[in-house]
Amino acid sequence: MSESSTKQVDDARTTAPTSHAALSAWVAEVAEMTNPAEVYWVDGSQEENDRLTAELVQTGTFRRLNDERFPNSFAAFSDPADVARVEERTFICSQEERDSGFTNNWMDPEQMKGILTERFTGSMAGRTMYVIPFVMGPLDAEEPQYGVEITDSAYVVVSMRIMARIGTDVLRKMEAENAFFVPALHSVGAPLAPGQDDVAWPCNPEKWIVHFPEERSIWSFGSGYGGNALLGKKCYALRIASVIARDEGWLAEHMLILRLTSPEGRSYNIAGAFPSACGKTNLALLDPTIDGWKAETLGDDINWMRIGKDGELRGVNPEYGLFGVAPGTGWSTNPNAMRAIAKGNSVFTNVALTDDGGVWWEGMTDEVPEHLTDWQGNDWTPESGRPAAHPNSRFCTPISQIDMLSDEYYSPDGVEIHAILFGGRRKTTIPLVTEARSWANGVFMGSTLSSETTAAASGAVGVVRRDPMAMLPFIGYNAGDYLNHWDKISGLLSAERRPKIFLVNWFRRTQDGGFAWPGFGDNSRVLKWVVERIEGTADANETPIGFVPTGDSIDLTGLADYNAADVEAAVNVDKDEWAAEIDGIEQWYANFGEALPASLRAELDGLKERLGA
Ligand SMILES: Nc1nc2c(ncn2[C@@H]2O[C@H](COP(=O)(O)OP(=O)(O)OP(=O)(O)O)[C@@H](O)[C@H]2O)c(=O)[nH]1
Ligand SMILES: O=C([O-])CC(=O)C(=O)O
Ligand SMILES: [Mn+2]
């Protein structure tokens, strides 16, 4: 460490603007280890944000977009090897290997700390170390869930300001309560030698996304990408929070929350767990295509559910922004997202640039621009034969910019959940919608949920895998214990207030390869059936797997070229497909051994019997 940088770090340490002893001690310890050029405490103000974005433009990380069409918005382009979550580099380092379980990578926590300490030693040299106080969920919650992220990336600071409540207000309340906070340490792992030029997207070829569940701490090294680097999101609000939820008797889930109001004025809050890039944001911003129905957004990715006074399930969205998949988000498929984005204050990552300083991605407009600069900076034309935007390119936008945001979003007590949807991306087998036979049968549906892999995580795309409750990459502990925890929560809910559970699949294909269902805004038609099943007014056919709509129980008014026979095909339960599915479920359940709840084994036995398998 040079003499001058030692002095700057010391200065920052002694002037740490907090009376929270544990926090100032941790910040000092990290500064000592990582050796940044300076330490900066993030206040969350607009002036600060303007300064940071200007710096990011200067260093080449950000491109400022056309200010008329995308006010105060920026585009960033990542290293081509840093575009998605890295599940094979993600670890749950519990004291006992058993508590991490077969769905997670594990290493002994002491050994892992040794490796990480080596990586983090000097890792912030030549960079600013930012300290970001944040809270997941409302600051006026009964027990605010605090965190502090330390990062050497200004891109992370600007993005965290969109995705979470951050800054001085949070810090002051945390100090006043001398509250516990989740320490979340992040470095891109690209120290700068004196005089060394920076690159637009610093990162390290070696990545470590590590969680210490007993300590409730996070260490993330080497990546700047959202799910790996914005530590309030997947790392805290899902992996660490799922452990806290297990210990405290609630659920931290990968779910959207949507409020739907019927023409008669009855409102229902619907939660939906779909794996990454399988339609949560799109459903959360639903634009109903049926008359008189109103949809309001509560959350698009994460749902913390606690049990209310009357044994009801209550959900809160702990986030403050959207980090949405760009491709497929368009004026025809998701106009509500497009309107939110058009208000500006957004960061786009790995999208394409138009010649007039705007952004574009596949599916944004029906008309494809004649010329673009693709996400890797190359000239692009429709003849190029490759996507202009990366398939996992993202927009990061304040949730407050959604016109259809429910007032209840701000409620610290959340909303009662009336229905839960489990959904996957399956070309075959899984009907458009199936109502579970019972709550236990619905938990079975969640535990056996399956989906084709997407570009949201590195690795092969399109491979069917089991993804229990869409939480496979996010359960911060033993997956068997997780299913048992769902079982336990079931017992705590009032029998009358238990949400109805449905399995959905917007992605089934027809013989000729097209989608069996139009999807997007037309999903309101399926939700109408869901609501009518809750109210007991819609027709259904009983099948071995559950109740599916009759051909004419789905409202198809105004939907050209689609009829009751198409609905029947979309909800068909095929015996051969289900025989194969049962094999898949058996294999999946075998992983759990003794830990599989008896109620789920009983559900599987019942299903086999009904299928005559
Ligand atoms: N065919 C069809 N595609 C859909 C539908 N809903 C969403 N999609 C597409 O699925 C992709 C991902 O959708 P999102 O809504 O962003 O997924 P998400 O579940 O919020 O994803 P994460 O943010 O990764 O957790 C986009 O390309 C959408 O266009 C639908 O109803 N039908
Ligand atoms: O975590 C991310 O980067 C985005 C996301 O929502 C997911 O992958 O499920
Ligand atoms: Mn997600």
From TrEMBL:
MF (Gene Ontology): GTP binding; kinase activity; manganese ion binding; phosphoenolpyruvate carboxykinase (GTP) activity
Residues the record lists as binding substrate: 85, 225-227, 276, 392-394
Cofactor(s) of this protein: Mn(2+)
Binding site for Mn(2+): 234, 254, 301
Localization per record: Cytoplasm
GO CC entries: cytosol
Pathway: Carbohydrate biosynthesis; gluconeogenesis
Residue numbers binding GTP: 277-282, 394, 425, 520-523
Cofactor note: Binds 1 Mn(2+) ion per subunit.
Keyword Cytoplasm in annotation: yes
EC number, as in UniProt: 4.1.1.32
Main location: cytoplasm
Keyword line: Cytoplasm, Decarboxylase, Gluconeogenesis, GTP-binding, Kinase, Lyase, Manganese, Metal-binding, Nucleotide-binding, Pyruvate, Transferase
Domain of life: Bacteria
A GO BP entry: response to starvation
Reaction it catalyzes: oxaloacetate + GTP = phosphoenolpyruvate + GDP + CO2
PROSITE patterns referenced in this protein's UniProt entry, alphabetically: PEPCK_GTP
Stretches assigned to the Phosphoenolpyruvate carboxykinase GTP-utilising N-terminal domain: 26-246
The protein's role, per its UniProt record: Catalyzes the conversion of oxaloacetate (OAA) to phosphoenolpyruvate (PEP), the rate-limiting step in the metabolic pathway that produces glucose from lactate and other precursors derived from the citric acid cycle.
Subunit comment: Monomer.
NCBIfam families: PRK04210.1
UniProt family annotation: Belongs to the phosphoenolpyruvate carboxykinase [GTP] family.
PANTHER family according to UniProt: PHOSPHOENOLPYRUVATE CARBOXYKINASE, PHOSPHOENOLPYRUVATE CARBOXYKINASE [GTP]-RELATED
Name of the protein this chain belongs to: Phosphoenolpyruvate carboxykinase [GTP]
The gene coding this protein: pckG
